[in-house]
Amino acid sequence: MALEQEPEVLLAQKLAANERTVRTKAFKKLRKYVRSRSQVPGGGFTEEELLKVWKGLFYCLWMQDKPLLQEELSEQISGLLHSFQNTNTQLLYVETFLQTVKREWNGIDRLRMDKFFQLVRFVFRQVFETLKRNDWEESLCGRVLQLISAQLLDGSAPSGLLLHVLDLYLTELGLVGAEQLTADQNLSFIEPFCRTAAKTKDRVLLQAICSSVFGQIVEQAPFAVVDLLKELKTQQGEEPDSGQASEGEESPQSSAPSNSKVKTPKDKKTSSLKASKKEKLDEDEEEDDKLLDDDLDLADDEDVGPVLQFNFGAVADRLFQLASKTNTATHNRTKLYKLVKTFRDLSEGVFPQDEGPEAVSTDEDDDEFRSRRKRKKKQRRGEEAEDTPPKRKKEEAAEEGRFRVHFLSEFISSQASFLQRKGSSHFTVKGKESDVWTKKITRQQSSGSRTAAPS
């Protein structure tokens, strides 16, 4: 009698089937099974069971073709998180997902990598959506951050997966909670990355955290300020025009006594000066309002999406606190201190300046730079030649002469051995003339006399 298989195993096998209809029916059954089981008291899933479920879900997406269908399936798989009625099971679902992706990541080929990138993004989006539905409860947020640190930032995650998570983390968090999260809550969400940047020995990971997390905060700082200005402007616009009405009521009263008084030339001068100053102040305020409106319009033109608000001074203090510890490596401390300086400047209203178009190098600039380098090299060589003392120059010249003599002697000896093999046994290197050359001369003379005899 065959043993009955577990429902998770049967569902996983059908989820990984070749036919799309079979996979679709299996996913619907899985959703119903998750809802019905999680509603029963004590009916939660174990880690082993969810790993089997995720094995089937992973290969369900593996078998899916066509980008639109892949996106739909990724949304369904990530949305399955809300079918679990228990918070502990929801966190276990996310944990087993990260374990499955870490295990299978290196086996994903380049043609299927994009859809798994998309799945990771959608799962993180639904995790933040779950936190939003729970009103960003501090204890639940802490458990999620602890899960991310344990599964991704402990050094066991593949580099590609980790770098992708760093790229999408703040973007997805902003899409879900930019309107509700405060600056202190946002600081708590980047706390794991601050700690990892201080203690990691992986320089690639450190650079990725600095560029993807902290670099994104710095890049979005101007837009965060614009959002604050918009909020202030809306708050000012909501106030009633009671001030103008009161001024209008006071104006006839104030004008009545002024008409009764006779104005002297001094009063006329002072009133004209006050009026001119007031006009200048009004013009300055109008210019400031125009500039502010232009900045707001430019910010609207550049669609960067929702922006998270950060207290830059608090971020700088936290990074400085971690960097100043004795167990922090020198390389990490240097990187963090640079970030501290940047965030200090942002807290004081000083934004880092981007390179303008004139700072971009062209081919002509590169050619000039190369020629400049060549000139500098020549100058250095000339300076080195001038700096050498005369005694050293004599030694170098003598050494060069010895080398030439040695080379000539080697050449003559090689020529002598070659001529000896040709038949001359009386060749002497030291002599000025040899029998070989005398024989050649006599042969030429005899041949010349033979040719001249008939004439």
Automatic annotation (TrEMBL):
Regions of compositional bias (Polar residues) in chain numbering: 251-262
Primary location group: nucleus
Protein name (Swiss-Prot/TrEMBL): Uncharacterized protein
Biased composition (Acidic residues): 355-368
The keyword Isomerase is assigned to this record: no
Keyword DNA-binding tagged: no
High-level lineage: Eukaryota, Metazoa, Chordata, Craniata, Vertebrata
Domain of life: Eukaryota
Biased composition (Basic and acidic residues): 264-281, 388-399
Compartment annotation: Nucleus
Residue numbers spanned by region Disordered: 234-289, 348-399
Keyword terms, alphabetized: Nucleus, rRNA processing
Natural source organism: Alosa alosa
Biased composition (Basic residues): 371-380
GO BP annotation list: rRNA processing
One cellular component (GO) term of this entry: preribosome, small subunit precursor
Family stated for the protein in its record: Belongs to the RRP1 family.
